[in-house]
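Input/output pair, single chain:
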Amino acid sequence: MTKSAKTATAAEPSAGTARTITSNATTTAAAAPSGDGTVVRPLPLWRNLQFQTLWIGTSASTLGVSVTDFAYPLTVLAVSGSPALAGLFAAVQAIGMLLAGLPAGLLADRSDSRAIVIWTEAGRAAVTAIVAAALITGWLSLPVLFAAAALLGIGQAVKGAAQTLLLRSVVPAEQLTQALTQDEVRMNGAALAGPALGGALYAVRALAHAVPFVFTAGCFLAALAGAALMKFVPGAPQGPADQAANRTPNASSEGGGAAGSGGSSGSMLAGVRTLWGQPVLRAATLLIMFVNTIGAGFELIIIVILRHQAVPASAIGLALGLGAAGGLAGAPLVKVLHRLRPGVLLLAMCVLDAGILALLAVPFGPWWVAGLTFTVMLGLPAVRVLVDILVIRQAPPEQRGRVVAALMTLIGLGMPAGVAGCGLLLQYLPAQAAMLTLASAQAAAVAYCSTRRELRQARWPGQA
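Output:
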């Protein structure tokens, strides 16, 4: 549940979905009749070279981020010896993401998404390479690390909005659920492999523990190459003009009400107005924001708890990675869990999350951590799809980048305070007490949000 701000993902379109950007005749947004009256079906996803090229590059990038998400706290702890400063590093990264969020959405709506992804990956590769070089040469310092955190946070926001639109530009609407299922494999596979790989690479003493950062810089370059190669794949989108030409004429009616009136000429706040103007979306966004704030320092506390138990870095990474396998196992459960009302499902997952946080305070070692994390991750794919159905798929096409950015910004508002607060808790309290404090705070937040009637009674789009 604490990864929602990083991955505002998409799901099966509702009946009112209008943004169906297409890449060529074989990936039309809907099964369309040909000149002789026969119906032309889109290619299977495994033959959609645009999507697969994008997916491979994005998978490499996600794996690299997962590796350094594990390596950065260890590096800050090695440089400073302070859990509070490790929390501050994550807070600076979150602040960078928040400050760039709304402008990134406007940029994604008005510019070529593929070009944005290329330039963002180039920037992230350069920042990570500088950190690696500073480690190798012995010049790494806290100012360098905090500057890297801010730049990486900005890059996360810019790429997140653009990538969401780029995915929809190469996948027909009726195949979006299948594409997002494959995307769950990317995200959860990276979460599974990243910490274990990060721990193993950090344990390599060669290059002054810089191996994880060298690896991640290479991953960003691979993602850059994937986005660049899309230009040479037959039928790939070439720019915003091509994308706009493929939007369906009635796109403005998709979001309902005034949400679609802003158009691409609206302000960067159009996405915020769309979210905040609907009671169900407002309540769901608040709940996820509370959970993200409280759980922002989750992995940091886990790392500190296991380090205090003399667990080596490689075993910590393996435990976190095995726990993340729950996300992979949870993908087939999406349809089953979506038999619940969306608000009930969201509240139930948050209650489970609070209980897991409390149980993690019990010092039973890395396999206990892996089992509990696996359990809570089972519901994460269903929550990601829920967010897409209720929010992203309902957004007007010309505002979708801003809606994605607004969602990421709003649910991430408390993350800087959350990660900094976790660092302070670890500085002055035992790690187990810090975890119990987080569990209590989350239980209180869920109890408050459960009083929102509009959330409890929310229905899926299209339901009577």
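The first strand starts at residue 32 and ends at 33. Confidence is low (pLDDT under 50) at residues 2-34, 236-265.
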